[in-house]
Design the sequence.
């Protein structure tokens, strides 16, 4: 089934029954012990070889941006580009629920921005949806529950198109997956990567819409998710033949721990830039 869609464990082989859990465990166990331990790190200095840890910030061309929505709001964000080369693909990050603390700095999205421009030549755009605050600032407006946020998603996509950024993909996490499914199925977007989808706002009609377009969905579902676990997710996403579901053993909704962050980032890179997969445990600036 993986030629067009299906289910796999963490290593990318077809997964059924008990095999799925075993393959997810292999994916986590395959990480270097020093990375799996979840050590923290500091901003990397130019020119040195650095072990990539939880807090490592790799070089990128970073720019604070403001997105203007069709209903007149200014949304604060950041665009991170590869430090030397043009990007091979673009990620638009859609953060978790802001009323539960979600924002553009939610840790998986922040680490994607800190690492993937340098190690995988990806452009990463993060922003705060309406009424959401982070260190970058507060976006205009008020939280709309998912409906008015359609304009926020559209503004981010329009920004990337106007900037000439290539191969636009959405990276949604929790509430962000709802926004991706409901409002991201547009011609300018190639596909979506969904972390911890809850499917509380997005419904079967949205899934059917993605199925009809043939756009790819990569769905990463924690084994111990609070809202939608792998067995349920398989049933719901069966409506989208081209969807690939990755069940991640022992992971939880918030993807806490460097082991699980690396699994997520590796799955993103395997899809968008296979030449850069698997991601390195260390990094040295090109000279």
Sequence:
């Amino acid at each position: 089934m993986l030629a067009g869609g299906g289910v796999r464990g963490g290593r990318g082989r077809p997964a059924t029954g008990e095999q799925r859990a075993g393959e997810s465990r292999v994916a986590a166990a395959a990480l270097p012990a020093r990375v799996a331990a979840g050590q923290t790190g500091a901003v990397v200095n130019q020119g040195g070889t650095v072990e990539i840890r939880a807090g490592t910030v790799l070089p990128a061309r970073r720019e604070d941006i403001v997105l203007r929505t069709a209903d007149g709001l200014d949304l604060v964000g950041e665009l991170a580009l590869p430090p030397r080369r043009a990007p091979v693909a673009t990620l638009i990050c859609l953060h978790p629920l802001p009323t539960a603390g979600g924002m553009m700095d939610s840790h998986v999205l922040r680490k994607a921005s800190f690492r993937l421009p340098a190690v995988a030549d990806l452009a990463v755009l993060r922003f705060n949806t309406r009424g959401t605050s982070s260190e970058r600032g507060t976006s205009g407006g008020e939280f709309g529950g998912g409906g008015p946020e359609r304009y926020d998603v559209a503004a981010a996509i329009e920004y990337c198109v106007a900037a000439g950024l290539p191969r636009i993909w959405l990276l949604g996490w929790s509430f962000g997956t709802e926004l991706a499914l409901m409002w991201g199925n547009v011609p300018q977007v190639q596909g979506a990567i969904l972390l911890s989808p809850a499917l509380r706002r997005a419904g079967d009609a949205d899934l059917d819409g993605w199925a009809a377009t043939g756009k790819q969905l990569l769905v990463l579902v924690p084994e111990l998710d609070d809202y939608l676990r792998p067995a349920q997710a398989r049933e719901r996403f069966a409506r989208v033949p081209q969807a690939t579901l990755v069940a991640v053993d022992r992971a939880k909704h918030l993807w806490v721990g460097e082991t699980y962050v690396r699994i997520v980032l590796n799955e993103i890179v395997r899809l968008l830039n296979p030449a850069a997969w698997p991601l390195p445990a260390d990094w040295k600036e090109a000279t």
